[in-house]
Specification:
Shape: elongated
Oligomer: single chain
Order of helices and strands: HHHH
Distance between the termini: 21 Å
Helix content: over 70%
Number of strands: 0
Strand content: under 5%
Low-confidence stretches: none
Length: 70
């Protein structure tokens, strides 16, 4: 929440690239890692909408939603 809105997309893209391997390194089952990473865009959009007023600048929400819409 402390970074500028224009870097949010980069952070989320890196998270998506690395999340699957991170989950496997934490001994998650491959099918669970697949499920979680396949659903990341919907999850990010849900969190961004649900926290619009409570947690941070509107720019962060808009950047997250624009990334989720890709």
């Amino acid at each position: 929440a402390y970074c500028r809105a224009d870097c949010v997309v980069d952070v989320l893209e890196e998270l998506q690239r690395s999340m699957h391997s991170l989950l496997l390194s934490l001994d998650a089952l491959p099918e669970d890692a697949d499920w979680f990473t396949a659903d990341q865009r919907r999850l990010v959009a849900f969190v961004a909408r649900g926290t619009e007023e409570a947690n941070g600048p509107r720019g962060l929400r808009e950047a997250a939603l624009s990334w989720a819409a890709l």
